[in-house]
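User: Okay, second chain of the day. Same drill as before: sequence in, structure tokens out.
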Amino acid sequence: MSEPTVSLQHLSKRFGDVQAVSDVSFEVYPGEIFGLLGPNGAGKTTTIRMMLDIFRPDRGEVRVFGGTLDEQAKERIGYMPEERGLYKDQKLEPTLIYLATLKGMAEATARERLYEWLHRLDLYEHRHKKVQDLSRGMQQKAQIIATLIHEPDLIVVDEPFSGLDPVNTRLVKDIMEEQRQAGKTIIMSTHQMYQVEALCNRIVLINRGRVVLYGEVEEIKRRFSAHALVIEGQGDFSNLPGVLDMRRQNGAYHVALAPHVDAQTVLRALAAREDVFIERFELAEPSLEDIFVMVVQREGDDA
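Assistant: Same drill. Structure tokens below.
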């Protein structure tokens, strides 16, 4: 395996009385889209900021491109934070060119590259508008251009699909896949688990500042396959033992079980109910959303 683009080893960070990140370690490699996941307040943003040398860790080591981050290395990074950073009272074209030059790109090259991106993302006709006069989706696409225009080797995006309609979501997914195939390293933080499942080969899940899941998506799903059910039938399916989450979809109940509960426990509970008729009861491969709920709720119960 090639050398990791990003290597975080035993990172910890405290703000006053709050332990934001505790002993976080993971690696991300060239040519992959890596999911950085967790509920709000889990420590994801703090981890990203330590990775990018915005915050210094209290303990642990950050290595990017095989070493510490100097100014030259920072020019090889494209970062789209959750709090968007475009100057809203400035016109789109000069703003994006200016941001590209801050990353070491010549102005003429930046303008040429910008026009290519504007055409691709259907923003060319809006290039003379102020950012604040663009729709939310257009502003999101402009932020994506700002992240990619200087052709970074490491791309870090926080909620990249926010505000996008299905057509533009598909376009941005295609762009991310193209970047991956070009050997770029992409770290994506999002709450849209189905997008992670579609794009990411590996993930890390952080909760309460700690790593609680790390590895390949398919292996993680196999590991949790004994704790997801599909049930079809009639009657009262509420208040079943050990159920963390239950959603009705296409006439079936999709059930996520706590790790200490097996399917037989649920089946026995249903069989004991006189008003329940079961047509289908089977183990199912859990979605990442199911696993997210299982792990985060388990951590809450253990606290």
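The two ends are 37 Å apart (CA to CA).

User: Thanks, on to the next one.
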